[in-house]
Design brief:
By secondary structure, the protein is mainly α. It has one domain: Tetratricopeptide repeat domain (Serine Threonine Protein Phosphatase 5, Tetratricopeptide repeat). Helix content is 72%, strand content 0%. The chain contains ten helices and no strands. The chain is globular.
């Protein structure tokens, strides 16, 4: 008897996190980037196993040129999602995972264009570029309606000599 856990009590720490997350989205909508980032960080401080606030935080970090931090956040979000960890059902699991892969691809694409990488070890540059290409393609596979991923993956197919099929264009 003493070892029984009330399931509702075990989830009490999640109370109010949805509101904090939505507040973060609202702040983003109103261009309050710092406020939005704080909301997402507060959610993650309570429950670090949530992908959605990590994705939004990664997006902010990417836009503020904090690429390594953005990469870390989005990689963790992808791990969570690939283990069935979607929290909110605002979009499908594939759509959300596509967004995460698209952010990872974009972070890597921008990183590959940085002077430190461009003028550094060519093998490191090639690995980053290849991983970016793969992430854009994965994002497109998960959600063909992800126009950003489709644009980049389609262009990369042509660059790699893999002409896009008519179905990819539709």
């Amino acid at each position: 008897m003493g070892n029984e856990i009330d399931i509702n009590q075990a989830e009490d720490h999640l109370d109010g996190l949805g509101d904090k997350f939505m507040d973060g989205l609202k702040r983003l909508e109103n261009a309050d980037i710092d406020g939005a980032a704080e909301c997402f960080k507060r959610v993650l401080a309570v429950e670090p196993r949530l992908a959605e606030p990590r994705i939004e935080l990664a997006r902010i970090l990417m836009e503020t040129q904090q690429l390594k931090l953005a990469e870390s956040e989005v990689r963790e979000a992808i791990k969570i999602l690939e283990n069935g960890g979607q929290w909110l059902d605002l979009v499908t699991e594939d759509e959300l995972t596509s967004v995460a892969y698209g952010i990872l691809a974009e972070v890597l694409r921008v990183l590959a264009e940085s002077d430190a990488v461009v003028f550094g070890d060519p093998d490191i540059w090639r690995n980053i570029v290849d991983e970016s290409h793969a992430a854009f393609r994965r994002a497109r596979e998960l959600d063909p309606e992800n126009s950003h991923a489709s644009y980049w993956a389609g262009g990369l197919d042509v660059d790699a000599g893999q002409a896009s099929s008519p179905e990819d264009e539709a």
